[in-house]
From TrEMBL:
<keyword id="KW-1133">Transmembrane helix</keyword>
<feature type="signal peptide">
    <location>
        <begin position="1"/>
        <end position="26"/>
    </location>
</feature>
<keyword id="KW-0732">Signal</keyword>
<protein>
    <recommendedName>
        <fullName>SMP-30/Gluconolactonase/LRE-like region domain-containing protein</fullName>
    </recommendedName>
</protein>
<keyword id="KW-0812">Transmembrane</keyword>
<dbReference type="InterPro" id="IPR011042">
    <property type="entry name" value="6-blade_b-propeller_TolB-like"/>
</dbReference>
<keyword id="KW-0472">Membrane</keyword>
<feature type="transmembrane region" description="Helical">
    <location>
        <begin position="334"/>
        <end position="353"/>
    </location>
</feature>
<dbReference type="GO" id="GO:0005783">
    <property type="term" value="C:endoplasmic reticulum"/>
</dbReference>
<dbReference type="InterPro" id="IPR053224">
    <property type="entry name" value="Sensory_adhesion_molecule"/>
</dbReference>
């Protein structure tokens, strides 16, 4: 057994913070390569994505097919649901997994020249059987867009053209939850290519409210999930072209803009009366990133469905992508947190070492 001198022991303690960081810091902080999934499916052009935590795969919709497909981590694509009873060329847009009820909710929309068609469908996740098809009522222009679900099985769907929110209960009964004047009180620049697109991405927060973003104004709204009361969240910058939105378990909100090729990371200290963008990362603009999915450990993935290319209808494509996204600023913060913990541990151990030496010296003098 080798004994260390006091000098050598102190030197070892100085290296403890670095050792502590090496052992304790999550590998994702230092990993240079993000998880990228390339998958192939002829003319799929998916706009919506969701994560199925039980089957451990992603679900994606389709612009040109009446299908919901699963995509594995290795890029294997399987058609999970093919609903041929729907009108031909109906688009499957937003998706949400309702794990408690073992189903997936899909927003359905028919583009011109088809007759107007806005609906929410629920399918059993294992059998693929359709549980209900709920037509979404509207007296004005309507583009059913995105969907989220609460813990009771209620779904909430945005109307991008009419700027209101539908609510569909767990049995498929639909009504308008919120048609707040807050959604239309701000001017819209008519020269924007997405000026027609109002309320878009939506996410349910466990405290009983919704967060919804508006593409053509870049605003975010907090909406009561019971009575539909809406307030505008005060942000430090506009989220122009905002599309998909997701809320992590730690309360951080992620918003993606396919028009700008951006992802924003936002925080709030007052339950979204106010919020702030604390990081912004660039995405592949050509891939037209529309939506975000969160999987285990709050890992965030963005979908590159190239939907704009598909809408133009003048191309054929087989390859699409799903890519993990992370905030470098958050990674830096985690590193410094472990540095401070490491130095604190080193100081504590050094203090214990010194006290041990003091006790030994006192024992020697007494004896």
């Amino acid at each position: 057994m080798t004994l260390l001198s006091s000098k050598h022991s102190f030197t070892l303690l100085l290296f403890l913070p670095l050792l502590f960081i090496h052992i304790s810091t999550p590998s994702t902080v230092f990993a240079a390569d993000r998880h990228v999934i390339n998958f192939r499916s002829p003319n799929l052009y998916p706009e919506g994505i969701a994560w199925d935590p039980k089957a451990h795969h992603f679900l994606v919709g389709s612009l040109r097919h009446r299908t919901i497909s699963s995509v594995s981590d290795s890029g294997v694509v399987k058609t999970l649901i093919s609903d041929t009873s729907l009108l031909e060329n109906v688009t499957v847009l937003g998706l949400a997994v309702d794990s408690l009820n073992n189903r997936v909710l899909a927003v359905l929309y028919a583009m011109k020249p088809l007759p107007p068609f806005n609906a929410l469908a629920a399918y059993d996740l294992r059998s693929g059987h359709r549980l209900f098809l709920s037509l979404l009522p509207s007296d004005t222009a309507a583009i059913a867009n995105d969907v989220t679900v609460d813990f009771k099985g209620n779904a909430y769907v945005t109307n991008a053209a009419g700027n209101f929110i539908w609510k569909v209960n767990d049995k498929g009964s639909a009504s308008i939850l919120s048609n707040s004047p807050r959604f239309t009180e701000l001017p819209v620049d008519p020269t924007l290519p997405y000026s027609f697109c109002g309320l878009n991405g939506i996410a349910y927060v466990s405290d009983g409210y919704l967060l919804v973003v508006q593409s053509n104004t870049g605003k975010m709204y907090k909406v009561d999930a019971e009575d539909g009361t809406a307030t505008r969240v005060v942000l430090n910058k506009d989220l122009m072209g905002a599309d998909g939105v997701a809320v992590r378990q730690d309360g951080v909100v992620l918003v993606v803009s396919p028009e700008l090729g951006k992802m924003w990371f936002l925080k709030s200290n007052d339950s979204w009366g106010e919020g702030a963008v604390f990081d912004e990362i660039d995405l592949d603009l050509e891939g037209f990133p529309t939506t975000i999915a969160l999987r285990e450990r709050d890992r965030a993935y963005v979908l590159y469905g190239r939907i704009r290319e598909g809408v133009l209808g003048n191309s054929e494509r087989e390859s699409f992508g799903i890519e993990e996204v992370r905030s470098e600023k958050e990674g830096e913060s985690v590193v410094w947190l472990f540095v401070m913990i490491g130095f604190g541990l080193a100081y504590f151990l050094y203090w214990r070492f010194q006290m041990g030496q003091l006790v030994k010296n006192m024992d020697k003098k007494i004896n």
